[in-house]
Design a protein that fits this description.
193 residues, 69% helix, mainly alpha, 2 domains, Tetracycline Repressor, domain 2, Arc Repressor Mutant, subunit A
């Protein structure tokens, strides 16, 4: 008879996700994962598979976490939602979260060598661009934003700034510099052509 699991699968997956986020895929060993997750090696393999399978599940969990956080923007105007997105890039709402972004880390470390990771990164980028484009379009429809703005191109621009800010936030503590990038980015919504 099979033994029942003695751990919360989602809780230990979150621990793995955070360790991968902090250390990266290559630097994280199975021993590190066993120790950090607090599960036996056999249980880890039985539940999540090998290291790569666990990493892919951690990416899916990260994506789910990001989707859950999107509800924070539902009540905001387009401009407020865009500003909050950029501000959260430099000061996440979860102060305990590792610096940077698991998506960016995955893109840099694995997207060129692992098709599944590249596909996941591209799906997440597209999803964020669509979210931003939706905010911009809604802002145009409400009269908040100029209807002449190209919502799709702006979604690429804002997402690129968002990703760039996540990288810089990992490398610098210069909040004034990061805030000035946000202000410059937001200014494209009101600049005259």
């Amino acid at each position: 008879m099979a033994r029942s699991k003695e751990f919360d699968e989602d809780a230990v997956l979150l621990k793995a996700m955070r360790l991968f986020w902090e250390q990266g895929y290559e630097k994280t060993s199975m021993s590190d994962l066993v120790e950090h997750m607090g599960v036996h090696k056999r249980s880890l393999y039985d539940t999540f598979g090998d290291k790569r399978s666990l990493y892919l599940k951690a990416l899916q969990r990260y994506g789910k976490m990001m989707e859950e956080r999107r509800s924070r923007y539902d009540h905001l105007s387009a401009t407020a939602a865009l500003r909050l997105l950029l501000e959260r890039a430099i000061k996440p709402s979860d102060e305990d979260a590792p610096k940077g972004c698991l998506l960016v880390n995955t893109a840099v470390e694995l997207a060129l060598v692992d098709d599944s990771c590249r596909d996941w990164v591209n799906q997440r980028i597209t999803s964020t661009e669509q979210l931003i484009q939706g905010w911009i379009t809604a802002g145009q429809q409400s009269g908040e934003l100029d209807p002449a703005l190209d919502a799709q191109k702006l979604s690429y621009y804002f997402n690129n700034t968002f990703v760039g800010l996540r990288v810089l936030a990992k490398a610098t503590d210069d909040k004034e510099k990061l805030q000035s990038i946000i202000e410059m980015t937001m200014s494209v919504l009101t600049s005259k052509r």
